[in-house]
Amino acid sequence: MPKLKFRTPEADVTIDVNVLLPSQLTIIDSFQLNTLIVISILITILCNSIISAPSCSNRRLNPNKLQELVSHQKILLESLEHENEKFTSSDCFNQMETIMLKCQEYNTKLLKLKKSMLNISQRTTKIKKQCSKLHELKAKSLVAEEEVRRIEMEREKLLVAQPVTSSQSGSTHPEESPVS
Predict the structure, then answer these.
(1) What is the mean pLDDT of each run of 10 residues along the chain (180 residues)?
(2) Keywords, A to Z (predicted)?
């Protein structure tokens, strides 16, 4: 655990956090730790003030001043405990818990959405490939149909372009007879 260092008007103070934590306490949250640190700082400041007071330097304590300091310390301790209770009993912790649950739900929804979008993307890519193959087949079939039409047109031209000879029909056309 870290050591906490701070400066007071009287002296520099270093507090070992391990000393602050009771041995029975196994689970402690950061708020409780901060509260313990603040309380220990205040106690240390009070103790330093008592020790550094001019009346304490010769080891004679004024009972009235000591009683006053103890009463101030009790008031301070009670106010700190009250503030701690306010924070722990406030709705902020409940709200934080509900917010964290919502975050988990939204994260799950986002992961599902991402998975479905990836699935849709894969299906779209597959359909595009099929579409391009169909376009290629359509183009090939159009080229084949055009080739068939061209061949049929050439056959028709060959059939139409052949002159009829007298041996085939037995008669002559007037255009073919010699001019006299």
Answers:
(1) 54 54 46 68 73 56 80 87 77 78 95 97 97 96 96 88 61 52
(2) Membrane, Transmembrane, Transmembrane helix
